[in-house]
Amino acid sequence: MASNSFGNLFRITTFGESHGSGIGVVIDGCPAGLELTSQDIDLELARRRPGARAHTSPRNEDDRVDILSGLFEGKTTGAPIALWIKNKDADSSAYEAVKNLYRPGHANFTYLEKYGVFDHRGGGRASARETAARVAAGAVAKKLLAHEGIEVVGFLCAVGDVVCPDVEMKQLREQTRLSPLFCPDRAIETAMVQVLSVAQEAGDSLGGVVGCVATVPVGLGDPVYNKLEALLAYAMLSIPASKGFEIGEGFAAARMQGSQHNDRFMAEGDGVRLATNHAGGTLGGISTGEPLVFRVAFKPTSSIRKPQETVTVDGQVATLQMPTTARHDPCVAIRAVPVVEAMAALVLADAVLLNRSARI
Fold first, then answer.
1. What is the DSSP letter of 93?
2. Which domains occur in the chain, in start order?
3. How would residue 99 be classed by pLDDT, with cut points 50, 70 and 90?
């Protein structure tokens, strides 16, 4: 399994499994002199951890980080930063009864076909538990981005058929952090809670969409293959359960005319900016200075209480019935919000460092 690293200059490698001793990440390329504490990382992990918000998995992990290397007297040294998060509340017994069944929507079929082995305990390496390491690394990336005046904020913009309209950065900062579901509109959030409750009662799950806004300067990203939106798409579609990515008007752009979609340039002070932002903050793969605005679609949680027809690993017809002790999120998009933020921060931190060599 050779694809556990992400990034170029600011590069991370994650490791660990859902029901192993813990989850970790090594960060290469973080510049020396960045002020960093474990509290900076713990604050981000608290936003992702299970059991912390309404309608999330009741698995009780406190998700506090140990910084093993790369830090001296409160500042990064330029050496690799190793972060470790212990697993304290894994319950593997819930998976014994279903370990020989192909679970619909899960990766045990493809892992077994490819590698001949699969850690059935909570999905092993394929589990969303791995994203805790991404969020930890993203916290470091956010600290670096703060020096560049770059901010990244995610929010829950849809659960099932309940949709929250796009909002401005200023509306997102505090509202989503105080919100049980990361939704900036309280009325919409109430409707989301209702549809989630109905799905849970029925033993089912729902999909959702996470929106993200990032304030960035002009010039990040490179033409052709390393376009900023291409890197963001790559990052977002690496998140477990993600199924779609769009930036700006996204798929709606296919139904627009050029006169509607083109963002008009206008003079502002001593510079130039765009009057609208249908493109979502990039042109030619390079950031325009307008906010990056993108959305990520997540499928419904694959683990549900409803019985599902399947087959055993030997090909025998069977019924999958998850044990009552199994613990899963009814909608993975809720806890995916800080993960989307983290992956965006990693992309942007890498882009900032790469951009320093763009010209003399």
1. G
2. 5-355 (3.60.150.10)
3. confident
